[in-house]
Amino acid sequence: MKKKVTSILSFVIAGTMLLTSCDALSGSKEKDKKKKGDLNEDIVDCVEGYFGKITDMSFSKLDKFVEDSAWSDLDLKSDEFDILSAYLSRVEIEVTETDGDDDDDEGSATFTMTYVDLGEVIDGLDSDAELDDIIDALEDKKVETTEEEIEIDLTNDDGWLIDDDSDIYDTLMEDIEDLFDMVAVEATTTTTTEATTDATTTTTQDTTTATTTAPNDPAPVVTQPQPSKVAPHIVDTDTFIKLCEEMNLEAEDNSSGDIIMKMYNDAAEEFMVLYIYSDNLADYESELDGLIEELLYEDICIQDGSVTDEWAGNTHHIMSENNSYFDGDNLDIYLYRDDNSLALIVCDQVPQADFGIAYYELIQKFGIYDFGFDV
Fold first, then answer.
1. Checking CA distances to 371, which of 30, 76, 111, 256 falls within 20 to 30 Å?
2. Are 254 and 17 spatial neighbours (Cβ–Cβ below 8 Å)?
3. d(Cα 198, Cα 196) in Å, to the nearest integer?
4. Quick check: 320 and 244 in contact, CB under 8 A?
5. What is the arithmetic mean of pLDDT over 254-270?
6. What's the rounded Cα separation, in Å, for the pair 309 and 316?
7. pLDDT of 13
8. Confidence check: pLDDT of 268 > 60
C-alpha cells in the first residue's frame, strides 16, 4: 500500500510531543547549569553547539555561539561546497577543560579536535581525480585523521560566546584549497576539451560560422521550479496559518503550552506541512536536530533512490527521487529553521503525474523558498 506523506511525521510528532510533555518546549524547562566534574556545562554546550553548526555547514547560525565568525566570509562554488561538507562532517571534538563560572564575565575552553588529514587524502589521490573521488576519499572511514588541542576564550554576556574562532578556521582550512584546485583543474580541462571538440565539428560544417559564432549549449532540462533568489525569512505565524486555511488544507492541531504545532495536508495526502513555533524553540535545538536528522536523513532520504540537496538561506531543500519508502515516488522536501520556527514541507510526486503549481506558490508565500512566481 502506498504510504502517504503524513505518515512520515509520526516520529517527529511523537518525539516533539514527548518533549512538550516534559515541559521541554513550553518555556518552563530550566537550563541545566550544574557542573559535570570540572567542566562548566554551559561553556561545553557553547563549544559543542558551535561545532554542530560547523559540521552541518550552517554557518549562518554561528552568531549564537560566536560574535564575528571567520566562517562568515566563505564564498563557495558548488563543487567546493560538496568537498567542504564531506570534510567538515568528519570533524569531532572533546572538551577537556573549562575555566569560568556562570557569574564570570570571561572564561575559556580547551578541547581536542579530530579531523581528516587532508595531506594524506591529497597524497592518495591521482592527479586526474574527479569530485566523486575526492568526496569518497574524505568519507572513507579508514582515512587518516589528525588531532589538535585548541584553547579558546569566551565571554559571558547573558550567555557564553566564543571570542574568536580564527584558530579553528585556520586549522581546518589549511589545506582545503589544494582539493578545491583539483576540482578547478578538472573543470577547466573538461571545458577546454569540450570547446575544442565543438569548434572542430563546427569548422567542418561551416568555416565562416565557426570563426564568428560560439556553439550553442543545449537548453537545461528543468524538472521542478527553480529559485530566482533566496527567500529572506518565513512569514509570521498568523499569516502562515491563514495561508494554509485559504488553501483549504486539512488541519491537525498538536499545540501545547506556549508552543504552536500544526500539521496540514491536502485531501490526496500528497502535500504536507508541519509548522512549529515557540519563543523558546532555540533553547531546544539539539533535541529537534535529533528528531529531524533521524526523520529526514535516516528514515526518509537514505533509501535506494537518489538524493540531491541545496541550501537557500535557512531552508534545506532536498529532492529524493525513486524513494523506495514511498513506492518509487519522488519527494520534494523543504526544511526551514530559525530561532523560533520550524517548517517542514513534503511534496509527494508520483512519476509522470502533474503536481499542482499552486502548492509551490504557497511555499513561496510562506517565505520558505523563492521560485520567482508573481504572487
1. 76
2. yes
3. 5
4. no
5. 84
6. 7
7. 55
8. yes
Angle at the Cα of 37 from the Cα atoms of 31 and 41, rounded to 5 degrees: 25
> Cα–Cα distances in Å, from 89 out to 53, 81, 133, 174, 371?
10, 12, 17, 16, 29
Helix residue ranges per DSSP H, the chain? 10-21, 41-55, 78-88, 118-124, 131-139, 166-173, 176-205, 207-212, 237-246, 285-292, 357-366
Residue whose cell numbers read 562554488 = 77
Cα separation, 47 vs 275, whole angstroms? 29
C-alpha cell at 173: 582550512
Burial label for 367, CB within 10 Å (0-12, 13-18, 19+), is buried
Match 500544526 to its residue by C-alpha cell. Answer: 262
Sheet holding 341-349, edge to edge: 250-253, 260-265, 271-277, 341-349, 329-337, 315-323, 306-312
What does the alpha-carbon distance between residue 118 and residue 98 come to, in Å, rounded to a whole number? 29
Mapping DSSP to helix (H, G, I), strand (E, B) and coil, where does residue 306 land? strand
Distance between CA atoms of residues 326 and 223, nearest Å: 19
Which residue bears the cell 519508502? 325
Collect all residues with Cβ–Cβ distance below 8 Å to 298 and sequence separation of at least 6.
none
> For helices 78-88 and 176-205, what crossing angle results, to 10°?
150
Highest mean pLDDT among 18-22, 196-200, 349-353, 366-370: 366-370
Cα–Cα dist 49/97, whole Å: 16
- Residue 370 and residue 230 in contact, taking contact as beta carbons nearer than 8 Å: yes
Alpha helix (H) ranges present in 22-151? 41-55, 78-88, 118-124, 131-139
352 pLDDT tier (thresholds 50, 70, 90): low
Contact yes or no for 251/262 (Cβ under 8 A):
yes
Q: Contact, 310 vs 249, CB < 8 A?
A: no
More confident of the two residues 205 and 54: 54
pLDDT tens figures, 36-77 = 457 999 999 999 999 988 988 888 889 889 989 999 888 888
Place of cell 572538551: 95
**Cα four-point dihedral sign 97, 73, 312, 351:** negative
